[in-house]
Amino acid sequence: MINVALEVAEYLEDNSIGTVGTNIFVDSLPEEDGTIVAVYNTGGSSPDIDLPIPYPSFQVLVRDEQASVAYAKIKSVVDLLVNKYNIVLVSGGNYYYAINMRGEIQNLGQDERNRKEYTVNFSCRVRGR
């Protein structure tokens, strides 16, 4: 299995979105306050017959007490990731033929502590190491 979420989280850290383990998390969403970015592996699609490579997908969720802060952060994430082609996100990582956004940024409303949450989904085509 290709851990796309981990590579994306590290790429976000390398591009000043936050720090993995502090305010960027992989496959988890801790209860801490502040601006939190969570990157989840979400499975993906089966490879097609013509090009039998992995088609994983991932989701990014951003949470903050203020909607404007959460939205600005997820917009920064989208700007970094949308329509990337022929790229290696992290040193020694997988080769991404394409990273594409699936749909638009979604407002999830508020969590049980009234923090605002936004999410966005991506699919990609990857050549594993």
Would you write up a description of this structure?
Strands 1-2-3-6-5-4 form a six-stranded mixed β-sheet. The longest helix has 15 residues, at 67-81. A hairpin with a 5-residue loop joins strand 5 (95-110) and strand 6. The protein has a single domain, classed as STM4215-like (2-Layer Sandwich), CATH 3.30.2000. It is globular and about 45 Å long. Helices cover 20% and strands 39% of the residues. With 129 residues, the chain is an alpha+beta fold.
Give a topology summary.
Blueprint lengths: L3 H11 L9 E3 L9 E6 L15 E8 L2 H15 L2 E5 L6 E16 L5 E12 L2
Parallel strand pairs: 1-2
Antiparallel strand pairs: 2-3, 3-6, 4-5, 5-6
What fold name goes in the CATH topology slot?
Answer: STM4215-like
What is the SS-derived class? alpha+beta
- CATH architecture classification: 2-Layer Sandwich
Helix content: 10-25%
Question: Roughly what is the average pLDDT, rounded to an integer?
Answer: 93
Tell me the overall shape: globular
Number of domains: 1
Strand order of the largest sheet: 1-2-3-6-5-4
- CATH hierarchy class name: Alpha Beta
Regions with pLDDT < 50 over 5+ consecutive residues? none
What is the helix/strand order?
HEEEHEEE
The CA-CA distance between the termini, in Å, is: 11 Å
Strand content: 35-45%
CATH superfamily: Phage tail protein-like
Biggest sheet architecture: 6 strands, mixed
Quickly count the helices: 2
Give the radius of gyration.
14 Å
- Count every beta strand, where a strand is a DSSP E run of 2 or more residues: 6
Briefly say what this structure is.
This protein is an alpha+beta fold.
